[in-house]
Amino acid sequence: MPLFEVEQKFSYNVANLQRIFNNGRPPFKQLVPIKTQAFTDTYYDSQDKLSKSGLWVRKRHISGDLHADTPQGVHFWEAKRRAQGSSVNRSTFEETQDEGQMLRMVRKHVPECLGPENNFGLDMLCKFDTVRDSFLADGKFTVVLDHTDFGHQVGEVELMAEDAEKAHADIDAFLKEYAWFFDTTNPKGKLTAYFEKFGYPK
């Protein structure tokens, strides 16, 4: 079975960050910082053909890593294809960094696309910087807190799983247990916030 990235977005109160390690009710059973990383994401598309098909292609440039497990200055391509049944804030993705696989995925929607050295022949959609704090919660859930250079912040809880339905159920239970920190009523993803602020390219 394929391995899916299962995620749910959430909003959070900056004031609650001071409570995240010991003052929450109930407190996390375990919360281990993973890393703080700064990166630039550049998204690409061709007349919305990819995004309308649930496919997102981006180049990520790592500009800083507090724990230095990823070399600074490295960049790589990523593609995320939304699986059936996903919503904007509660998603299941097939994700790859394999450029050959990405080329095949893009060609299904843009047959004339080029290789990664030519940005797959796609147009730049948007570009922004993010600082990300990552944690491992309760020995299972990856929690990320993103802060963008255009003033937006949003979090995600992520699991890698073969059974997406069970993973979503586990995430739902986790979010409910620590509802004092996770606000799932109206989270807004980075791309949505970016286009709301700057407009969608024509």
Explain briefly what this protein structure is.
With 202 residues, the chain is an alpha+beta fold. The protein has helices spanning 99-107, 164-177, 190-198, and strands spanning 4-10, 31-45, 55-65, 75-82, 90-96, 123-137, 141-148, 153-161.
* Tally of strands: 8
The end-to-end span amounts to: 39 Å
Strand content: 35-45%
| Overall geometric form | globular
Regions with little confidence, pLDDT below 50 for 5+ residues: none
**Helical proportion, percent range:** 10-25%
Order of helices and strands: EEEEEHEEEHH
Global Rg: 17 Å
Helix-strand makeup class: alpha+beta
Summarize model confidence as the mean pLDDT.
Answer: 91
Please outline the major beta sheet: 8 strands, antiparallel, barrel
Oligomer: single chain
What is the number of helical segments per DSSP (H or I, 4+ residues)? 3
Q: Order of strands in the sheet with the most strands?
A: 1-5-4-3-2-6-7-8
Characterize the structure shown.
This protein has 202 residues and is an alpha+beta fold. The protein is 16% helix and 40% strand. The chain has three helices and eight strands; from the N terminus they run E-E-E-E-E-H-E-E-E-H-H. The protein has helices at residues 99-107, 164-177, 190-198; strands spanning 4-10, 31-45, 55-65, 75-82, 90-96, 123-137, 141-148, 153-161. The protein has an eight-stranded antiparallel β-barrel with strand order 1-5-4-3-2-6-7-8. A hairpin with a 4-residue loop joins strand 7 (141-148) and strand 8 (153-161). It is globular, with a radius of gyration of 17 Å. The model has no long low-confidence stretch (mean pLDDT 91).
